[in-house]
Amino acid sequence: MTRLIAVKRGLLVGLFVGIIISSFRFTINNLLVIWKQLYHFAGTSISGLILIIIFFIILTFIIGQFIKFNPHIMGSGIPEVELQLIDRLKLNPISILVSKFIAGSLSIGTGGFLGREGPSVQLGAAVGQIYAEKFRLTDNDWRLLVATGAASGLSAAFGAPLAGTMFVLEEISHSFSSILWIEALSGSLISDMVADQFFGLRPVLYIHYENSFPLRYYWLLLILGLILGILGYFYQKATLNVHFLYNFLGRIPRENQIIVMLMSILPIGIFYPQLLGGGENLIKVLSTTKISLSVGIAFLLIRFIFSAISFGSGAPGGIFMPILTLGALIGLIAGKLMIMCNLISALYLPNIIIFSLAGYFACISKAPFTAVILITEMVGSLSHLLPLAFVSLVAYLMVDILGGAPIYESLSKRIDLKHELKHIDSRLVSFEFLVSPLGELNNKEVREIIWPQNVILIKVLRNNSELLAKGDLILKPKDRLILLAPVEDIAEIKHELSVLN
């Protein structure tokens, strides 16, 4: 496939994704305004409280029906996209698109501590899948378009086309294929342009700051990164184990457990509606509003606990923005402590908050490049690249030392695939793997390599040429290996190859 075709497909998918995600964002924003008015009404009278509880019950039934019909709209949707790309899960894209849009809007629009970004990734992937299946493209092109749609979805949700592309490369597809990044970037750019027509050009998380962070304070960033890593590991454990809480609610059908989230956020909606939602608006005011240390700690605890409850309920919504909000609150608390101890000037508080956004997301998702690029695009400044990268790397390594795994990869392993997998046959599927310049595969003959079981190297693509996979062929950096394996073994084979690479 030529790069021109890849760009054309990416632009077309990105255009439709941009329209859909912009509509998704618009719907959620307006629903949240309505629900805040309802919470205010519920706090003024008993009749208002009874009315909103009735609304909760009706909403639980409606969303529950969507979940019962299509269980894979639960949660963020990113783990499902990862499983689709390795042929471990088959989904109906039209069903996902309709159900996720409606149920996701209703869930996130209530003010639940959920993000729109994960659902945007799944919605975008569904658009890419519809395109690929409509034109009956090959398996490889199908995966490219699903990944492109996912990147476009994140780009439109955040207004960050580079981060959308990098997230798909680093976290979802685990591939840095040139065709993939060209197609994904094309889709991300056009979807971002469409979103800009709806919401303007201002960065999603614009944080005002005036001063660059001095090098003499970088030892504080080392401590900050370690703290973020420890708290990030704790977040991973809490998110992955919150299902034990819902196991005690066995009498409530899984599709209706969203009622737990709705009832838990009711007091917050009545008494402190500013805390509702994914947290985007809260992040924006942290550096400009005088918030005391004790209030910052209280906000962190509330957001941490209710983010876990919201996500654990199975409500269609993500953890992307809630993670960033927690990172910002940790940065606020750390910055306040540094200022109280006369370690830094109060002028650098916005900087600490920005660094913590990147570090916390980097260590939880185990995607540091995405974290740095995402925060750079979202705050609208390039001056933070070095400290962002430093904090992200330290936090990432801390979680690695503690034994943490990428949150979305862990969640994908938790998805029950028994009913889906029994319908997947053992057909052979070709897939691509890129040789790294620094790995063990580099400069080795094909016959010298201990290949994983159940895989055949068909050919090698090098500089637009196809080479036969003969035993004496020496692999070079950036060679694209075309391999053949049973569909159910691809995930394990890719993992074994990545260890060598």
Can you tag this structure with a few keywords?
mainly alpha, Clc chloride channel, 3 domains, 4 strands, 64% helix, voltage-gated chloride channel activity, RCK_C_sf
Strand content: under 5%
Give the rounded overall mean pLDDT: 89
Q: Note the overall shape.
A: globular
- Second CATH tier, the architecture of the largest domain: Orthogonal Bundle
Biggest beta-sheet profile: 4 strands, antiparallel
The top-level CATH class of the largest domain is Mainly Alpha
Structural class: mainly alpha
Oligomer: single chain
Radius of gyration: 23 Å
Named CATH topology of the largest domain: Clc chloride channel
Count of spatially separate domains: 3
Give the strand order, joined by hyphens, for the main sheet. 1-4-2-3
Number of helices: 20
Stretches where pLDDT is under 50 for at least 5 consecutive residues are: 416-424
Helix content: 55-70%
* Succession of helices and strands: HHHHHHHHHHHHHHHHHHHEEEEH
Distance between the termini: 25 Å
- Tell how many strands the DSSP assignment holds: 4
State the fourth-level CATH superfamily of the largest domain: Clc chloride channel
Organism: Liquorilactobacillus hordei
Subcellular location: Membrane
Membrane topology: Multi-pass membrane protein
Protein name: ClC family H(+)/Cl(-) exchange transporter
